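Possible regression after last week's pipeline update?

I re-ran a chain I had predicted before the update to compare outputs. Posting the input and the new output here so someone can diff against the archived version. Not blocking, just want to make sure nothing changed silently.
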Amino acid sequence: MSSFNAKQCYLVVYNAILCIGWSAILAGIAVEFAAQGGGNLGQDSLLELLYLRVEKLLKICQTAAVLEVIHCIVKIVPSSPVLTGFQVASRLFVLWMVTDLVPLTQKAPGVILFLLCWSITEVIRYAYYVLNIFGQVPYALLWCRYTFFFLLYPFGVTGELITIMKALPVVKDQGLLSVFLPNAVNFSFSYFHFLIFVMLCYIPIFPQLYFHMIAQRKKFIGSVAKKVE
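New output (post-update):
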């Protein structure tokens, strides 16, 4: 890298902070798990404690990802604002509009599943971004960046869907975020049915994102292999 401009400096700081943040989330989960005797508590209590241990930092780190959509829009980075926007929005939705809205979901296995998948993915991704700016990405990190998603992505999505499913009965029984008739504006909205709609949206969208990552893997891993040859 011939020069280190303001944009690169900003991206190094942003990505480094997020890498440290997600690493702290992973460490927090491990520390809490060890503190609870490696799972001697009941499953529900343990899962809730693991989530609560990292909740604040999780919300900060994941919400900060909104900046990545802006980065794409103003072309600080070359990524697609549509793909990036969907990935960020889906996570924020699961975090704020499901997990935070319905505390019962914090005891569900789906939460720890997507939390672990998100954390591992982001530690690798942000570390890759930082080193890539310096042009010093080791092959091992490149391989992890474009290989771990084979398992982390589907498991993460599975965790998100399990969490939403866990929230459905509560949302239906309590009428959370729903608008019922009659009312002054003659408008009704069922958040319960909206959540079902969101889950159905995973069916066409997940394969597109998954195969996009496979194409990216062929592009980056394949190009390295050709250079070696």
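Follow-up from reviewer: compared with the archived run. The radius of gyration is 20 Å. Marking as no regression found.
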